[in-house]
Write a structure and sequence with these properties.
mainly beta, Jelly Rolls, 5-stranded antiparallel β-sheet, 1 helix, 12 strands
């Protein structure tokens, strides 16, 4: 993998916002507003109260996570440090680099979470077991 990933590389990204009395517009361009080419977009919605999403990490995938509507918390863990981000603005996203364990919770009623990803879906890119993730973090994978 080369470069060591850490929470310090994850941050809130301000997206372009065109304000208009008729309604605002925000857009995302790959390699301009995010440090990757966009290969996939997906979204979570109708998340029941008290439910959690995520609970995994990616080996190589880069993501931008956006609260399109409502709000939720994103818990990140790089194997050494943990940090929580509260997302509630549709013109801001959280950049998440590879090798970051993530859990999403505290979804407000009607929340919609959109994720812009650097790769198409690949099950082999996932860590679904936290212990396996920690072992590879310690190895510097």
């Amino acid at each position: 993998m080369g470069e060591k990933m850490s929470i310090a590389k994850c941050s809130i990204v301000d997206l372009p916002r065109i304000q208009d009395p008729r309604g605002n517009l925000t857009f995302i361009e790959g390699s301009t507003h995010v440090p990757f080419d966009i290969q996939r977009v997906y979204y979570l919605y109708d998340v029941p109260g008290g439910a959690e999403r995520g609970g995994h990490a990616h080996k190589a995938l880069h993501q931008l996570i956006i609260a399109i509507s409502g709000s939720f918390d994103v818990h990140l863990d790089d194997g050494k440090e943990k940090k929580v981000f509260h997302l509630n603005r549709s013109f801001q996203g959280l950049y998440v680099c590879p090798m970051m364990w993530r859990e999403l919770n505290n979804f407000s009623s009607g929340a919609v979470c959109m994720v812009v990803a650097s790769e198409k879906y690949d099950e082999d890119d996932y860590y679904r077991n936290y212990s396996d993730f920690l072992v590879d973090c310690k190895k510097g994978v």
